[in-house]
Specification:
With 148 residues, the protein is α+β, with helices and mostly antiparallel strands. It has one domain: Histidine kinase-like ATPase, C-terminal domain (Heat Shock Protein 90). The protein is 28% helix and 25% strand. The chain is built from three helices and five strands, in the order βααββαββ. Strands 1-2-3-5-4 form a five-stranded antiparallel beta sheet, with helices on one face. β2 and β3 form a beta hairpin. α1 runs antiparallel to α2 and α2 runs antiparallel to α3. The radius of gyration is 15 Å and the shape is globular. The two termini are 26 Å apart. The N terminus is likely disordered.
């Protein structure tokens, strides 16, 4: 299975991409800002400024989650890079973040006594659909689709 799984069935076919861009992100906190800047530049270049605020927020949440929950140390004791892909298909833009982790993202009930825990709720509220899929031989992709 690729990163365009079953829940996105009603959207344009995977082969119908009209534009795409990928950015490699090092496993550092500064990558959240870099991902937002890359997203802003890409969407501006695609003349999709109306998606900019929502997509920047979604990308921020997904990259932050990848840093917190998806990064693992390899045998060389270094962390592997993440990748941000933006794919335009007609009026839809998908962002997909890949990381080396294998744990599934969980939409959890936020606690009034703990900070955080709202990231995937934000992603869910801003996107047409979102999901994740495992990657072979390891890792996962977490994706969200926004409509212009």
């Amino acid at each position: 299975m690729g990163w365009w799984p079953e829940p996105a069935r009603g959207l344009p076919e995977p082969g119908s991409a009209t534009a795409s861009a990928t950015f490699v992100l090092p496993p550092r906190a500064e990558s959240v800002h870099s991902a937002r800047s890359f997203t802003a530049g890409t969407l501006s270049g695609w003349q999709l400024a109306d998606l900019l605020d929502g997509m920047e927020l979604v990308v921020s949440e997904l990259v932050t989650n990848a840093l917190r929950h998806g990064m693992t140390l390899t045998d060389s004791r270094t962390r592997e890079a993440m990748r941000l892909s933006l794919i335009r298909r007609g009026a839809h833009v998908t962002c997909a973040i890949t990381d080396p982790g294998s744990s599934a993202p969980v939409l959890r009930d936020p606690s009034p006594f703990e900070p955080g825990g709202l990231g995937l709720h934000i992603v869910e509220s801003l996107s047409v659909c979102w999901g994740w899929c495992p990657l072979v031989p390891q890792g996962k992709a977490v994706w969200a689709v926004l409509a212009a």
